[in-house]
Amino acid sequence: MEQIILSLAIVMLLGVLCIKCFSKLGVPAFLGFLLIGILLGPYATNILNIEFMGLTQEIATMAMVILLIRAGLGLSRDSLRKVGRVAVEMSCIPSVFEGLLVMIVGHYFLGISFIESGMLGFILAAVSPAILVPRMLNLIDKGLGTKKGIPEILLTGSSADDVVAITIFSVFLGMYTGGNINIVWSIASIPISLILGVLTGFVTGLILLYAFRRWDFSDIEKLFVTLATGILLNSLGEALQGRIPLAGLVGVMVIGFLLLDRMPKVALGLSNRYSNLWIVAEIVIFVLLGAQLELPLLIETPEGLFAPVIIVGIFVICMGLIARFGGVFMALAGSGLNNKEKIFCMTSYIPKANVQATIGAVPLAAGVASGELILAISAISIIFTAPLGALLIDFFNDKLLTKDEDLDNSKSIEVPTN
């Protein structure tokens, strides 16, 4: 336990120093966090405690809960009503396009079976909430693209996008391992899990609203209660996996949405506190992601490949991104967005990070023949797309999106009079 605490202390200290240095350079701080992880990890100095690194999945789950509650606290009813259909299409079409093309390209260029490349395709098909959510909330605060609901489209679409990608990945994994997989039911479970996630989050949110009105909670107590509730809701979804499809993380976002809709003053206070909490979560999760990147494997040239893994991996990833761009363009057809805004949406769907780190090693653990290769390309996708996507979003947001001049940026939450 002492070694875990020591590792956490080192990570937090270096992370804060990294924020100070990178902010002066105008570079996203998470790039420094990744670098810290690589340097402290087992493939460099091996300073981080192995038990601390073993907590990556649990910490990633908590970070996702923090992110999605923040996302919900930034979604108003009017904005969701405006982007409903488009957000649904953005949640499935781009990821399916990307996953299927990677499946085809992976089969021919990596020399693996269609089932194995299907697993790779839908690992890569999940967009990163850790990169996307904070930036979209920042756009909402600035009033960039809000008139057409662009940040809201990307927030809601990306949260469900991960559910779609992970579900289809599990289908391919079950097919490979010989599990009793009902493909029709697996595909049908995607909308069912989303609907049940929304309903569960709505009921849970109503209970929290009652509690906050019935008893006097301090702001910090509300933070702990909502965070614990979000973690429990996500755990419920995981516990019911294989029996009842329930997208717990979607329910987590609904809790935030309901708080904003019914108790906007409370939501504003919570949003500020979750923003501060995310600073800690972001440092830890990205350092742990960096520590898990197996760098020696990336420069190897396994038998059957025409170039080192990193070269072939980037090629496969780029092919998938091209398909994703096509999916985004199709999903946005009839949305009223102009070409500049569509291009921004495409760039926003580039980054990959926490989902790939969480499930990238699953095929290897399940005994898939190409599991090591799949893990390596998952790592490459983080190194390549997370910085690229973040930099493109930050650079182009005010160049491709229109500012809503009617929005009061400093007080964007309206308190209902009734």
UniProtKB/TrEMBL annotation:
Membrane topology: Multi-pass membrane protein
Subcellular localization: Membrane
GO CC list: membrane
Domain Cation/H+ exchanger transmembrane: 13-391
Any one Pfam family match given in the protein's UniProt record, by short name: Na_H_Exchanger
InterPro entries assigned: Cation/H_exchanger_TM, CPA1_transporter, Na+/solute_symporter_sf
Ranges that cross the membrane: 28-48, 55-73, 153-177, 183-211, 246-263, 275-293, 305-332, 373-393
Any one GO molecular-function label of the UniProt entry: antiporter activity
Major place of residence: membrane
GO biological process, one term: proton transmembrane transport
Keywords: Membrane, Transmembrane, Transmembrane helix
Name of the protein this chain belongs to: Na+/H+ antiporter
